[in-house]
From TrEMBL, chain A:
Location(s) in or outside the cell: Cell membrane; Membrane
Name by which UniProt lists this protein: Peripheral myelin protein 22
GO biological process: nervous system development
InterPro entries the record matches: PMP-22/EMP/MP20-like, PMP22/EMP/MP20/Claudin, PMP22_EMP_MP20
PANTHER family: EPITHELIAL MEMBRANE PROTEIN-RELATED, PERIPHERAL MYELIN PROTEIN 22
Bilayer topology: Multi-pass membrane protein
UniProt signal peptide: 1-27
Pfam families referenced in this protein's UniProt entry, alphabetically: PMP22_Claudin (PF00822)
Organism taxonomic ancestry: Eukaryota, Metazoa, Chordata, Craniata, Vertebrata
Keyword Transmembrane helix: yes
Family named by the database record: Belongs to the PMP-22/EMP/MP20 family.
UniProt function note: Might be involved in growth regulation, and in myelinization in the peripheral nervous system.
Transmembrane segments: 58-82, 94-118, 130-153
Automatic annotation (TrEMBL), chain B:
GO biological process: myelination
Record localization: Membrane
Organism of provenance: Cyprinus carpio (Common carp)
Recorded topology in the membrane: Single-pass type I membrane protein
InterPro entries: Ig-like_dom, Ig-like_dom_sf, Ig-like_fold, Ig_sub, Ig_V-set, Myelin_P0-rel
TM region(s), chain numbering: 146-171
Residue ranges, annotated region (Disordered): 186-206
Pfam families: V-set
Protein name listed in UniProt: Myelin protein P0 isoform X3
Superkingdom of origin organism: Eukaryota
Domain Ig-like span(s) in chain numbering: 35-135
Family of the protein in this entry: Belongs to the myelin P0 protein family.
Region forming the signal peptide: 1-21
Length: 157, 206
């Protein structure tokens, strides 16, 4: 039982860490000369690099908001998990924890989808997707599976 | 131990020297529509009293230019506005130097007014300090400010969450109270029946 618990917590924390890295690190799209992400666009010209704040379009701000919300919900889910661990009756389900984690995964999914669809507005033609973008897409199924496990899991002794 | 002492004394000296410097405040960025007026505010913080020799000066550096030109100066109690440069007849002093306000008003903006405006204030004897810059962006149509939509979405979702939690607990509280009052009224009817018969007996006695 303890091993199972540990495994679930590790999965949850892994999803959370992926979400963090994806949101913060500036590598959603990039090419050898420039990179841009949710928050800044950095370009390197002749050895000098400068960063501008990202375009203030509505869609990029929506993606920012969704990524931050997914981090918040994943955190709340972890917190609720530990709360429910000590207060739930035997045989009860970690329903609330699972719901929050599934919400977090849905937010990440919508954020990544919006970014994919709308990025022609603010991304140069020559840029290709960076690892933060891929991490966002990986974090979605991880968080979703983690949420499902919580919903199915029953508290044993 | 000695190095820690040396380090703390250096840090304290650094803070102490900052205490006597003048700190100039302006906005970070201003957005405005073409043809409108914009007020660029400038204020300062200084540990000395506001001197009658306080000076404010504004400099303008267009986007892409290396050097700036001086467009406004207030000194010796008089304000001198630009009468030869790009802002002649468009600049007005709307500040109040005795209240540490050195703001200027630029009228009828144009796209060529995009650039960085630097305000430098001096309050003798407090003259050591850095000037502060505000960036002016002139738009045909004011775009959505950075972070407004983000904050709005996050605020709405978290607000809904808190609302749902509050409603859930309120419903639980109300249902519990209703159950409690129902059980009380059951007991109460039994008790009131006994009391009523006692009062009827006591009444005629009085």
């Amino acid at each position: 039982m303890l091993l199972l618990l540990l495994g679930i917590v590790v999965l949850h924390v892994a999803a959370l860490v992926l979400l963090f890295v994806s949101t913060i690190v500036s590598a959603w799209v990039g090419n050898p000369n420039s990179s841009s992400d949710l928050w800044t666009n950095c370009t390197t010209l002749n050895g000098e690099s400068r960063c501008d704040p990202a375009d203030t379009g509505v869609w990029i701000q929506a993606v920012q908001a969704l990524m931050i919300l997914s981090i918040i919900f994943s955190f709340l889910s972890l917190f609720l998990f530990f709360c429910q661990l000590f207060t739930l009756q035997k045989g009860g389900r970690f329903f609330l924890t699972g719901v929050f984690q599934i919400f977090a995964s849905l937010f990440v999914m919508s954020g990544a989808i919006i970014y994919t669809v709308m990025n022609s507005e603010w991304v140069h033609e020559s840029e290709s997707y960076g690892f933060s973008y891929i991490l966002a897409w990986v974090a979605f199924p991880l968080a979703f599976i983690s949420g499902l496990i919580y919903v199915i899991l029953r508290k044993r002794e | 131990m000695l190095s820690v002492l040396a380090l703390t004394s250096v840090v304290l000296l650094g803070i102490a020297s900052q205490i006597t410097a003048i700190v100039v405040y302006t906005s970070w960025e201003r957005h405005a529509l073409v043809g409108s007026d914009v007020r660029l505010s400038c204020s300062f913080f200084s540990w000395q009293w506001t001197s009658p020799d306080v000076t404010f000066s504004w400099q303008y550096r267009p986007d892409g230019a290396k050097e700036g030109i001086s467009i406004f100066h207030y000194g010796g109690g008089a304000a001198y506005v630009d009468n030869k440069g790009p802002f002649r007849d468009r600049l007005e002093f709307v500040g109040n130097p005795s209240r540490r306000d050195g703001s200027i008003l630029i009228k009828n903006l144009d796209f060529s007014d995009n650039g960085t405006f630097t305000c430098d204030a001096k309050n003798p004897p407090d003259i050591v300090g850095r000037p502060s810059s505000v960036r002016l962006l002139v738009f045909e149509k004011v775009p959505v400010q950075a972070g407004v939509v983000t904050g709005a979405i996050i605020g709405v979702v978290l607000g809904l969450l808190i609302l749902i939690v509050a409603i859930y607990y309120l419903m639980r509280f109300l249902v519990a109270r209703r159950v409690f009052s129902l059980s009380m009224s059951k007991h109460g009817k039994k008790g009131k029946g006994k009391e009523g018969s006692q009062q009827k007996q006591a009444g005629p006695l009085k």
